[in-house]
Design goal:
Elements (H helix, E strand, L loop, with lengths): L3 E4 L10 E7 L7 E8 L6 E7 L2 E4 L7 E6 L4 E6 L8 E9 L14 E2 L3 E3 L4
Antiparallel strand pairs: 1-2, 2-7, 3-4, 3-8, 4-5, 6-7, 8-9, 8-10
Length: 124
């Protein structure tokens, strides 16, 4: 059973930066597609970024501001978030799935492993 645990959410100033981390319970990154999703209050879960064997995809709303990366030696996925905006306020989730599906990486139903989420509050 794959387990994912996010961390790194917290208070930040408008225009500031945060780095989210997601630690996996096993060495899954070589065969798993990893992603970050977010859910803002009153909205559906949204795909933010995805990575599979070095290939990365981003939602248009975060391109140029967010960077997804992974450290296989540490079994850790990261999301570097820069130039944060009020609309980035959400609960952020780490997700994993076997395989690669570039045309639908942003669809939550494609992933069968999820973390509990970490909150990124509104920049102040």
């Amino acid at each position: 059973q794959v387990q994912l645990q996010e961390s790194g959410g917290g208070s930040v100033q408008a225009g500031g930066s945060l780095r989210l981390s997601c630690v996996a319970s096993g060495s899954i990154y070589s065969s798993y597609c990893m992603a970050w999703f977010r859910r803002a209050p009153g909205k559906e879960r949204e795909g933010v970024a995805n990575i599979y064997r070095g290939s990365k995809s981003y939602a248009d709303s975060v391109k140029g501001r967010f960077t997804i990366s992974q450290d296989n030696a540490k079994n850790t996925l990261y999301l570097q978030m820069n130039s944060l905006k009020p609309e980035d306020t959400a609960m952020y989730f780490c997700a994993a799935a076997v395989g690669w599906f570039p045309g639908s990486w942003y669809v939550p139903a494609r992933y069968n492993h999820w973390g509990q989420g970490t909150q990124v509050p509104s920049p102040h």
